[in-house]
Design goal:
Blueprint: H1 11-14, E1 24-28, H2 33-44, E2 48-53, H3 56-69, E3 74-78, H4 84-97, E4 101-106, H5 124-139, E5 144-153, H6 177-199, E6 205-210, H7 224-236, H8 249-252, H9 254-262, H10 265-268, E7 272-274, E8 277-278, H11 298-312
Parallel strand pairs: 1-2, 1-4, 2-3, 4-5, 5-6, 6-7
Antiparallel strand pairs: 7-8
Helix pairs in contact: 2-3, 4-5, 5-6, 6-11
Amino acid sequence: MSTQFGGASTTDEVLAGANLGGKRFLVTGVSAGLGVETARVLTAHGAEVVGTVRDRAKGHARTDDITKANGGRLSLADLELASLASVRACADQLLAAGKPFDGVICNAAIMACPQGWTKDGHDLQFGTNHLSHFVLVNKIQSLLRPGARVVMVSSSGHRFSDVNLDDPGFARTPYGEWESYGRSKTANVLFALEFDRRHKTRGVRATALNPGNINTELGRHITPTALAKVIEQVKSNDLGLAQSFFKTVPQGAATSVWCAVTARADEVAGRYCEDCNVAMVDDTPGVRPGVMSYALDASRARVLWTLSEELVGEQFL
């Protein structure tokens, strides 16, 4: 198992010497933070990237320099993850273009926001972070070349909550912003697990990862008090993490590109990764490294797949 890289590794270090000419990637959420950095480093190494954005003007403002620097290898596609109609329209456009992908990095997300609903009536975080990526990836799976990888950007936040398969949208249970986020991030891991099981025979693999704590726009809903509580939990675990609580953006995006390009497929497929390595299972409560065993439960992954199909009104391979 690879131990060459770690939590302090950057995207440039992870892809040092890599030639991605002829490779093509889809990256969601390239108008801020990790998505911008992921697009930058992939195109810098010769790959073509289609990056999705909710706000095209903002997307161009954040990525036009990348497009100019790397010979126009980055293009933008419209995608509003809070609307399944938008997800399907984006997928239809990609299918109509007919150009295959070597990887999909599902990076876009919202975190710890007040209670809300998608345009389809789903819990805002579960719908945006899980259901929309579930539909997008499944709709375009025919474009994935043998050897392609699907990379789900999950979070250590999956440790806050397992998926509630009986009440995914808080219809009968009190809403909690961190519980909602945890459910959605656990769903990302379970989706990767089941997608990998269904598609590995044709050489398409899937993995999930924790990018670490990065001070980006993702945290715009988090109050200083809420952030202080999380840092206090880290300190109470006495794991030596509090002093380096935040990673830089290039460090945060490193595990995404490591999973998508650098790591061996059989090393990371169907697994949960962090700090450019496969994470160990650790069911100790609290904010800490490791993956909760419920996020790697194959039977729950299959049930979530069926539930997700019911919620979006569409069945997939």
